[in-house]
Structures are given as structure tokens and as C-alpha cells.
Amino acid sequence: MLIKYEVGDMFLSNADCLVNTVNCEGFMGKGVAYQFKMKFPENNKDYVEACKSGRLYIGTLHFYRENGVTIINFPTKDKWRAKSLMSYIETGLDQMVQLLPKLSVKTIAIPPLGCGNGGLNWQEVKQVIEEKLSPIQEDYVFIVYEPSKNFVQKAQQEPKLGVSSLVLMQMLMELKQFKALRLQKAAYFMNIFLKENYFKFQKGKNGPYADSIRIVSKSIREYQSFYGLKNLQEAYQKVYQVLCSDKTDKQLVKLRPVIEQAVTFVNEIEEDKELEGIATALFLIETSRGGLTEEQVIEQFIDWSEDKAARYAEEEIVSYVERLEDKRIIERNILGCYQLSEYR
Q1: Spatial separation of the C-alpha atoms in residues 129 and 304, rounded to whole Å
Q2: In sequence order, what are the residues at sequence separation of 6 or more whose Cβ sits closer than 8 angstroms to the Cβ of residue 315?
Q3: Ramachandran region of residue 57, left (φ > 0), alpha (ψ -120 to 50) or beta?
Q4: What residues contact 5, with CB distance under 8 A and at least 6 apart?
Q5: Same domain, 316 and 232
Q6: What's the pLDDT tens digit per position in 93-133?
Q7: How far apart are CA 45 and CA 323, in angstroms?
Q8: Overall pTM > 0.90
Q9: Which residue(s) pair with 207 in the sheet?
């Protein structure tokens, strides 16, 4: 899943980054902000100083690290007695997308921005959160807390799901790590082992990326919410009951072995960086005409983006190619270029 929705106490999460909704006057008088003030007094002092000095205003963020946790103080209102505006949420999220790569955090807990005392509609805020976080959804785990204990988010009508949703749910139930990046890469390797483009992948920030997977994943979440289903297993069974037919069963029987093969391969790779690198190298080879030499893989990998060039050494890229060859996913042709193996 791309974003996890929770209810309850945000402070009980294991997130290494907590978002605190604040005003620009330096007051943390009640609610979650007051709890932040009590739990992180040094953060409060620095936040107050930022307000007094004029460094914190709408469209900026203030962050502070205390007790091993990074706190992002997110202005959802200017004056503490005023109401929040949706434009404040939008500009703040834009700033957060730019800030997070600098903070060395992976799991971010977010309260219902601007709702409650802020007066904003949660349905609208939730949509903005999903839209704004979409460009970095593969890089982090976002835990978004609903406005209240009794709040249950429901779609207005039943989301329509197809066989692709069953495929993704099978993968999610078997992946050891619950991350959007790993779901994307498992689906990509399924394509490779299937020798068909079941999902349409293109060049993305973190290697091969299919936006259809993000869309279907969102529909799965909405389907669970619509029917109040507790877990993916329940959702899978209900969707299957709707879709079950001879045609559906034949598709699932055909896909089952390659789903298992792809998930097993992804689960063997513990580090996300390595998984991203292996998938990127394979995508370059797969989409080449006539194959690539090792030198060409390295060159095109580094040219993928400035981010890739900064994060990956040539030795790492070579090791990814070697791993793919060892797994018989790629092979050398008569010209010595790497291409997809017929025996994968």
C-alpha cells in the first residue's frame, strides 16, 4: 500500500518522523500540539523562537530532532484562533516533499492536517495528501491518522476491481516488507518471468514504475474501507467471489507461478536500494535493442538521473548485473551483450 491509514494515538507509532500541526504565533495550547509540547519540550522552545524571529510562516516548515525522533512543525493556520485554509495544507505538503529527502527518515506519521479545530473537510484534505505525496510514495512509509477514533473513511460507491487487484493482493500478502516500492518491483519481475507486459512499466524515479499499480492499490484500500474489511485476505476473498469465473480462474492459474517466483526473488533482497538497482539495470537491458554491454549498462544507469548517479557506485551496478546473470534472468548473446534469457 502507498499510504497506511490508522486510528488512535500517533505517539504510539514507531515512526521516526512525526508531523505536528501548528500556528505561526508560537502557541501549542491544546490537542495534539499540546501533547507535542509536553513530550518534546526542546522542540517547542525552538519552534517558539522560529515564530518570534519570523522564520516560520505559511508555506515554510520547521523541523527539530529530539529523543531520536524528527518532528516537522507544519503550519496549518497563521493565527492560533483562526481557521485553517486548504491552500496552507497544499503549500505545506509541497514543502514537505522537498524537505523529507534531507532528513534521513523513512516512516512518517501524519495527523489529519487542518481538520478538527482547523475546520477543514477530511475528505478533501485526504485527497490533497494523496496527490501531493504521490511523487515520493515509493520512498517512504506514510502513516496517516484519521480525524477521530470513530471515523471510518468510506468511498461513496463501491470501487470496481478486476483481476489485477487479485494479483496485487496476492503479492502484498506474501511480500515480507510492506512498501510501495517492493510491490512495484515484484510486479515488474512478474512481467519478466511471465514474458508478457501484464502491467505497463516506464522509467520512474526509482526504476521501472507502473502508475496503474498505484491506482489499483488505492482502489483496493477504498474497497476495504467501503465494506469494512479488516485485512487483505478478507478483501481478496470478497473480490474473488465477485469475479470468479472460468476465465478468471484460468488467468490466476497462469499467473500464480510467476507471482510466487517474483515475490520470492524480491523477498531475497533485503535492502530497498539494491532492489531498486537490480530492477533498474534489468529495465535498461529489457528495453534495449539488441542488448547492452556491461559498460553500456553502467553508463545508462548513471545517466538515468542525478539521484541515481549520486547513490550508486559502478561496482554496485556490476554486482546487480552479475546477480541477474547468476539467476539466469539475463544472458550474453553472441556479441557479448546482455539480453533477457529465454530460460528465465
Answers
A1: 28
A2: none
A3: beta
A4: 143, 144, 145, 146, 153, 221
A5: no
A6: 999 999 999 999 999 999 999 987 788 888 889 989 998 99
A7: 51
A8: no
A9: 204
